[in-house]
Amino acid sequence: MVRTLDKTHTVLSYVDGSLRNAIIANGDGRPHNGFIFSLLNPPVPLGGNVVSLDVYIDEIPISKKSIFIATPEDIINASSLSEDRPIAFKPFQSARFLILKDEALEKRKHKIVILSKLEGFEQIIIPFTFSDYVAGQSERVVISSSNMIEDDPYALNTSTNEDTIFKNFTTPLILSGKKAYIVCSSSGSLSANWTWMGARYDNGGLYVPPARAFGRIVVEISTDDGIRKKLPNFVVSSRHESGILSTRHELAGLQVKRTLFVPPENKGFVMIVNLLDRGGDLSKLNTKRNKNRQGKEQSNNRRIRVHFLVDGNITSYGLAAISQSNSSKFLMSDNCLQIETASRKEIAHYYGTIGVAPKELKPVKVLTDSFDNDMEISYPALRYSMLVFAFSKALTNFVTMRFCL
């Protein structure tokens, strides 16, 4: 039974294909070898505070000074872990591992073991074991010099837009136009943690004074296995220039590029999502039937779906920050979801619209009646790119923005 649970935990946690050789950037131009991999869940069941962590590759131990762990909260070197400074793994929390190594991993299957000790259970070693082949070519990885150990001679080099950045991407950002702004994170999601009077909130969303028309909006991707993966957990680079946030994500053999901005003259925001497979074959993302070279029809077995999770609570903000009763519905003719507050005498009435272009891309799932007013729109990835629009006004602005682009 224990072995079955351990195997299930590994299957649900290790991101297949994420084991890659890496070349770590440094300030003096000398490259440093290593490898990276990702976990969808913590290496310890149910999470907890890990006070000690070791990594073995093919039964050979790795120096703790060469092990770096990035979670959405922090980046920590394994040598610094202790009872006074543990690394906190929350349930369902992803993590990325960077291991410095003298030589690159050979192009074959490797066995990797993570040994963890939990706070309060220091005498018990919790193993996490997986085996995988090294995928693709080596990636150039940039890690902030502030996260390197003090006696490491390697510093940060100037990064490019295609580098893998080893860091967490939870830094909140505000992108603004003349009539609206969004609160997001450097991961590209309209989601940002905010602490007020000791309480923690997700303050992300679209703000059109005097209301927050949409709350948190998070994008998930699912493939044939049906497991939905949040894009923020798989961001490898982020770039913010001239009011435009561009992020790159690697997951399930896909490369996802996302662009987020607020049009200056519109009360809304635009998100551009591009999906590419790592080999550059866009046809793999088409679930329609294709013809082979002999002219015979063949179906592509890969199913890609994009899921938009939306906090549909409209809030008239200010000191009161009062939420009103909302109703939502999906408008089939315009391929968009609309929410609005209840129209009552002497009370402000707000409404918002969110949709996807191209217009003929119909959703495979729409959820509008959840208990906590969380909504969902899911689409098949029939094309390699889509535009996501959200506005605080009804269909007039939505349609106008679509044609302006």
Question: How would you characterize the overall build of this protein?
Answer:
The protein is elongated, with a radius of gyration of 23 Å. Strand 21 (235-241) and strand 22 (244-251) form a beta hairpin. It is mainly beta. It folds into two domains: 2-166, no CATH class; 172-404, Distorted Sandwich (Beta-galactosidase, Chain A, domain 5), CATH 2.70.98. Helix content is 5%, strand content 48%.
Number of helices: 2
Number of domains: 2
Please state the CA-atom Rg, rounded to the nearest Å: 23 Å
Total strand segments: 35
Report the CATH topology name of the largest domain. Answer: Beta-galactosidase, Chain A, domain 5
The amount of helix comes to: under 10%
Largest sheet: 8 strands, antiparallel
Which structural traits does this protein have?
single chain; 405 residues; mainly beta; Beta-galactosidase, Chain A, domain 5; eight-stranded antiparallel beta sheet; seven-stranded mixed beta sheet; 2 helices; 5% helix; disordered C terminus
Please outline what is shown here.
The chain has helices at 2-13, 395-404; strands at residues 20-24, 32-39, 48-57, 60-61, 67-70, 75-77, 87-89, 95-100, 109-118, 121-133, 139-143, 164-166, 172-176, 181-185, 193-196, 199-202, 205-208, 211-214, 217-222, 228-230, 235-241, 244-251, 254-261, 268-277, 289-291, 297-299, 305-311, 315-316, 322-323, 326-331, 336-341, 351-357, 365-367, 374-380, 385-391. The chain is mainly β. The chain has 2 domains: 2-166, no CATH class; 172-404, Beta-galactosidase, Chain A, domain 5, CATH 2.70.98.10.
